[in-house]
Design brief:
This protein has about 475 residues and is of the alpha/beta class. The chain contains 14 helices and 19 strands. It is globular, with a radius of gyration of 21 Å. Bound molecules: zinc ion. The site of zinc ion (ZN) has 3 residues, from loops.
Length: about 475
Amino acid sequence: MTVDLVIAGGKLVTPENILDADVAVADGEIAAIGDERTFPDAERAVDASGLLVMPGVVDPHVHIDGYLSKDSYESGTSAAALGGVTSCINFAWEAWVGDLSVWEEEGTLLEAVERQKRKGEDSLIDFGLHGVITREDPAVFQELDDVIEEGVASIKMFTAYEIGLSNGFMNRVFEHVADRDLVAVLHTEDASVCNHLTAQLKAEGKTHPRYYPQARPDYAEAMAAENAVRMAQEAGAKYYGIHTTSRKAANVIEFYQGDGSEVRGETCTHYTVLDESAYEQQGSLPIIAPPLRTPDDRDAMFEQLHGGALSVVSTDHVAFARADKEVENWWDSSFGANGLQASLPVFFDAAVNRRGFSYPFVVRAMCANPARTFGLPGKGTLEPGTDADLVLFDPEETYTIDAAENASVADYSIYEGREVTGRVKRTYLRGELIADEGEVVGEPGNGNFVHRERPDWNDDRADRR
Ligand SMILES: [Zn+2]
């Protein structure tokens, strides 16, 4: 008997521990961890001396190939592979008609799922989908069973923009989400507060991006979160607050978790390392919604990740060109920033080197927790029998983030010039090397659509932190 691959001599980082151990891979899965001398002979052996061996990053919040993001699956997931990301969850948008739409006519949620699955045939990494409800049409409820059948286990809703749902409709969605044991994924900002403040800034001629955070304040984020979480709790629905940016919004999640409700929260790498001063330094490049906040909010993200109210760090990757961002008035800028390639090193450096968190803390926030939260039992761990999605990571190598190295079509980085210690050396997807020392070696189509099961959130309550 032989195995396909042995990675020996590294430090294994699991969600719980750091082990001096070797990994054997067979048929795309982790066959064993332990002492290589006890393993069968290997077709290939890799020396990981001096490196960390971590599960591949699971990024549950990315925008690839639509609805506005300019990355194709090939370019977006090439960036992911270089960044140690081996699975992601992208969005399938129910087509709508409106000023912000890219569609000529309305479409169903099921069509959206099928469309994204087709596009994803060029993916270099494994991917799943969230279904996005963009319209207040109850017909969508009839589709939910079929959507589940297609492997989609979560439903995204917005409270803002023209696709924002009213509290009344959202309340109905939560009932359906609860009945079917799906996960509700929420973008929360109070639309009327943000719209009025935006209009005021426009009227005052406050065009510079430094004013942008005033248009979408932390309390508007917390207000909408409060409404949505309360409705989810009444319905008994699983609630996942995406891209939490502020102490106030994180406190809402913490409060409702305290009563035993099924409430979880995510923040993004950029909210843990950047603050609103970035708008002075970088202009409109970091225009994202919600905005970057204050240094205190940045600290709050780590406090709440440590405490467990927040449990996941994602990228909210959206690819635009610099030209889409650099416009005269901040409100004309495209919203979103790319981050898949730099996210792991940037968050690792911030958490471990600058704030003293452990390696397993990083693995929990970026690998294990997103996998468990979203029904990906074969991902985010080094347990034998799970997919051999692995990152070889050098915790000692220092380098400077440079957008010239981007695989994404986005030709800038909000981390440009940032010096980080910790670098992705190799990325494996189900035992196959897909990125090697900064070179993409995987092929489009290597990645599979992952049919997700509806997750059980009770089995990991104790060890989420
Ligand atoms: Zn997003």
